[in-house]
């Protein structure tokens, strides 16, 4: 996936509360299930609250209060974040009739950007009562420009290394200073210099080591700066390191896979130099795929092979792993990562293509400031 | 791009000076008048014909046209999303200015996905009055 053409696929799977769902001791407590059995706990105020405009990587807090309006004690078994991570503390664990439950939520915003919603669930011991649902939502802004920087090394020849640069500004400080960097990968380091009309910005250059291993290398460089409102920014990096053999897709996005409906995907592995080779075997380190390989045309050896991937998933969930394509070249085993989402037979899918590039200009500015002036 | 901010059409209709603050009323003795800079302000006004996908606006200021610019709207100025054909009108007052100086401003929109985008050109405003020495 290249930065300039990257497309963000948002997959929203709405699980239907269907009869015949996987057997559960208490099916009413499963995600997506709503019963008509009223619970005794009643939130004071709207259980769906908004937080004030916040910056990325901040932590927002909220205290939800609910009252037991029933005639029996209610035991809270679990208070959890439905998506992502949050710290939830529910006290007391047992709420007497007429008593109050206090659920304190500490929600790290991380690298969320724009409208953000965080959903939570409360699971109690009440028979027949589904999860209590509550949420925090609000707007998350970035103090930086661009808001979504990326070090995209693109396709890198093995042994050559690469460089990728980003100009980073903030209009919330006179001069942006870099205080600390953690790249998270020994193969990537960061260089910084000044940029901008008055040196107010940072020219950041990620340097990929020539010794970077074959395959997809991705991660996030975490920068600490002098910005009071948002001292942290994460900049993802992505490199596809290959030698002579280059796959037609890397990593392989399998998309949506429905349980019971095998999915087949063909990937071409071509020699850039045109030298014939043979695939000896393919190892699936994830253990999810059946694989096969054949020359694109004619007999082996060939400068082009088709690798066939077949997924026959048994259960919903995230699916991911790594293939090692072993060739008759001693120094060229090609790693290839793959990923997809497995959904149930009855799951309703909405698929939105939300291109992640910059948004189009609404109208030409009358007199735009000079380049570099932010 | 689907679902993007496409139709923001804002018009910077005025950028003028606020009237000097009143010196005080009969019940309150006027404050010392030796600080005229505190009574100066630059007012930016704009309106938007369509705000689809817009969360709000940010205002930036510089002492030089070429920048660098600093954000002066501490909070995001939230879009009001007036139903068409009504326009939403906005007014931002910058009180952190000094008489006798020229300031340069421009506006960004902030989309609901959190991306900032230039909305206006640079507006130059000279604050009337003698510079403080």
Q: Can you walk through the features of this model?
A:
The complex is a heterodimer of chains A (374) and B (133). With 374 residues, chain A is mainly beta. Chain A has strands spanning 9-14, 41-43, 48-50, 54-55, 59-68, 74-81, 87-91, 94-95, 100-108, 114-124, 132-141, 151-157, 162-168, 178-182, 188-195, 201-208, 215-225, 232-242, 245-247, 252-258, 263-271, 279-284, 289-295, 304-311, 317-327, 334-343, 348-353. Helices cover 0% and strands 52% of the residues of chain A. In chain A, the strands form 7 sheets. In chain A, strands 3, 4, 6, 8, 10 and 11 form a 6-stranded mixed beta sheet that branches. A 4-stranded antiparallel beta sheet of chain A has the order 2-5-9-7, with no helix packed on it. A 4-stranded mixed beta sheet of chain A has the order 12-18-17-14, with no helix packed on it. Mean pLDDT of chain A is 86; it is low at 1-24 and 352-374. Chain B has strands spanning 10-17, 42-48, 54-62, 70-71, 77-78, 88-94, 102-111, 116-118, 123-126. Residues 1-38 of chain B have low confidence and may be disordered. The termini of chain B are far apart. Chain B is mainly β. In chain B, strands 3, 4, 5, 7, 8 and 9 form a 6-stranded antiparallel beta sheet that branches. In chain B, strands 1-2-6 form a 3-stranded antiparallel beta sheet, with no helix packed on it. At the A-B interface, strand 11 of A face strand 3, strand 4, strand 7 and strand 8 of B.
